[in-house]
UniProtKB/TrEMBL annotation:
The lineage of its organism: Eukaryota, Fungi, Dikarya, Basidiomycota, Agaricomycotina. It comes from the Eukaryota. This is Heterokaryon incompatibility domain-containing protein. Residues 215-361 form the Heterokaryon incompatibility domain. InterPro entries: HET.
Length: 657
């Protein structure tokens, strides 16, 4: 132990207790943390407004007020009415292990209960991905005072990251989780192409990745051009010799990552700006095609969440690069702390989380180390650990702890899907499209490239032979066409780059700015069935043949696997008859109206209907997207104004139309 740590520990031993208000002074925290208090017997603490007002008079009220202000987003929503809200405290086990087949509590954690929570607060918390529970932890240094071990207790976070702790996390995952985290389930025996380069941090050179080499990857935000440090055709030869990579020209995120990789005892590092020749389109194309293997094969990925551009330092690697802002109070001889923001809470508000390319980088990585402004998190397929809680197993292994469920989650599933889960392929694709399209791209023409590796992994994992066109899967094409823009989408077309010969067609979400979403099949079920779409599924494909026009203006037949099965028998329903017969592409080509590349062609039927606002539907406005309403679909057959269905449309739609 260093002299500085000994000095700090000595200072803590002699520090005075924080003052307590008359309410908090009646609490016996030693007994509460040792034995717990059931939720139904929570101890009253008074009105929330009183707790907030006493933040500078009482140590425990200060912790509670700070926690509630942060998680409830009160500083961003100062007008929220908190009158009448009361609080109470209880203590429950936050980790359980099996000891000789009997459950055993690891520790108790303090929870703050509220009588009610304003709706505006709940909406703000959901948007910020804040935890819904209010927790206060006892620090590990005082666990023995209440008869507990250090596990799952809070931990102090310093300005500099403890490298030995990071090594322990990596070693624990590799030794205990083994195959579950060693390889990604969607990849077979593929190895890195010989064209992939890595940074040799020992020799400070860019070298071809040695076969089956162990390396680390970096995910970060560029934040603008980097002509001064990018690898180009002009400097590649110089950077390929030992010592040829000049660390002095590297921006903070990259130089700090190189230092970190050395400290972790690793040798090879993959960074896109250095390992891809930025002014060589052919090299870029080759490397982009290998992106799924690059991130999927890395030993772990360092993710610079706390950096807004490559110029920012990696938080916690050098003095003065982060401030944990950890709130700690000494109460009745016990050091209590409120948790630092959990991973998904910190990530949700970061610039890194807004960028398009970083989505597939994190989703393809089986082990991630997130560097944020407050602390470092480790996430793998099996677990999530952080600096501010002793969540990594020491003497016990548990199935749950406070960080579980607060990570970035995995690409699709934590293991390979079994045969009966093949239908979830489209569901996973739709999730990827929804998450990805919420992000931003500096170069609009990257819209498909920046997610191509993720789509490749998805296709490999579900053993789907059919590929993608303009980001849309050929398998299940009739369902993937049903994407919709979100309510706040700008509804404007993306402008392709000059070198792009074929713009994205309008039937792909890639052609439009803003986020896209997919609705559940259940929304297409008649609302009067009363089942809300429960059990809805696609029974059969209704299109025989699909064509897409190529760059030469010629329709090309696409192999689109059809949904198997026949329509179920129903004597009260007329079966839809698919239009059949081959399509003669030549009939579609006329001199006056040439077919645009990307045009989607198929044979179908159409009908005209009247729509009118469905005033007869009880609760028609409930749960509907803002500025939308339910309309009735009316047919003239078999008699005028026959109700044949419902549809959700913008309120601006004239009624009837």
């Amino acid at each position: 132990m260093s002299w500085l740590c000994k000095l700090r520990r000595s200072q803590r031993k002699h520090e005075d207790d924080d003052p307590l208000c008359s309410t908090c002074s009646t609490l016996d925290l030693h007994a509460i943390l040792k034995d717990g208090i059931p939720r139904e017997h929570a101890v009253p603490l008074g009105h929330l407004t009183d707790i907030l007002n006493k933040h500078d008079q009482c140590g425990l009220c200060r912790l509670m007020a700070t926690l509630i202000r942060r998680l409830w987003q009160l500083d961003k929503h100062p007008g929220v009415d908190l009158g009448g809200i009361t609080c109470a405290m209880y203590a429950e086990a936050c980790g359980t292990v099996l000891d000789n087949t009997s459950p055993k509590d690891i520790c108790h954690q303090l929870y703050i209960q509220w009588s009610t929570r304003p709706r505006d607060v709940y909406i703000a918390m959901s948007a910020a991905q804040s935890p819904l529970t209010l927790e206060i932890r006892l620090l590990e240094e005082d666990a023995s005072k209440v008869g507990r071990t250090k596990e799952l207790h809070g931990r102090r976070v310093d300005q500099i990251v403890d490298i030995s702790m990071l090594k322990k996390w990596i070693r624990t995952c590799e030794n205990k989780h083994r195959e579950k985290c060693k390889t990604v389930w969607w990849r077979g025996d593929d190895v890195l192409p010989s064209t992939v380069r890595v940074v040799d941090v020992a020799r400070m050179a860019i070298v071809p990745a040695p076969p089956t080499c162990r390396y680390v990857a970096l995910s970060y935000v560029w934040g603008g051009p980097g002509d001064g440090y990018w690898t180009t055709q002009a400097n590649l030869a110089q950077r390929s010799i030992p010592g040829g990579l000049d660390a002095s020209v590297m921006p903070g995120t990259i130089s700090d990552t190189i230092q970190l990789v050395r400290q972790l005892g690793e040798r090879y590092l993959w960074i896109d700006a250095l390992c891809i020749v930025q002014d060589d389109p052919d090299d870029k194309e080759v490397q982009i095609c290998a992106m799924e293997l690059i991130y999927g094969s890395s030993a772990f990925t360092i993710i610079a969440v706390g950096c807004t551009s490559a110029r920012d330092p990696l938080p916690g690697i050098r003095p003065g690069t982060r401030d944990p802002k950890q709130q700690i109070a000494k109460i009745q001889g016990l050091h209590l702390a409120i948790p630092l923001p959990v991973p998904n809470e910190t990530i949700a508000s970061s610039v890194w989380n807004e960028r398009g390319w970083t989505f597939q980088e994190v989703m393809l990585s089986q082990r991630r180390i997130f560097f944020t402004a407050y602390q470092v998190y480790f996430e793998c397929t099996k677990d999530v650990w952080s600096e501010d809680i002793v969540a990594e197993p020491i003497n016990h292994t548990w199935t749950a702890h406070p960080l579980k469920g607060h990570g970035m989650s995995q690409l699709t599933l934590t293991s390979a899907p079994v045969y009966w889960m093949s239908d979830t392929y489209l569901d996973r694709y739709m999730t990827v499209a929804r998450e990805y399209t919420q992000r931003k791209l500096t170069v609009e023409s990257d819209i498909v490239d920046a997610v191509a590796a993720l789509l490749t992994a998805l296709r490999k994992g579900f053993k789907v032979d059919d590929g993608f066109r303009f980001g849309m899967p050929l398998r299940g094409l009739e369902r993937s066409l049903l994407w919709q823009p979100t309510a706040n989408a700008p509804n404007s077309r993306r402008v392709p780059a000059n070198e792009m010969r074929v713009p994205w067609p309008s039937w792909s979400w890639a052609a439009w700015r803003g986020a896209a979403k997919y609705a559940s099949i259940g929304v297409f079920v008649d609302i009067q069935m009363g089942t809300e779409g429960a059990g809805a599924f696609v029974e059969q494909s209704l299109v025989e043949q699909w064509y897409i026009v190529n760059e030469d203006g010629q329709p090309v037949h696409q192999y689109v696997p059809r949904q198997p099965g026949e329509l179920s028998e129903d004597i009260n329903r007329k079966t839809y008859v698919r239009p059949k017969g081959d399509i003669d592409p030549q009939q579609l080509i006329t001199g006056n109206a040439p077919l645009l590349p990307g045009t989607l062609i198929f044979r179908t039927s159409y009908s005209r209907f009247d729509v009118t606002k469905a005033d007869d539907v009880a609760g028609a406005g409930a749960g509907i997207v803002a500025n939308h309403a339910i309309y009735s679909i009316l047919s003239d057959t078999p008699q005028p104004s026959t109700l044949v269905g419902r549809i959700i449309l913008p309120c601006s739609t004239h009624s009837p139309t």
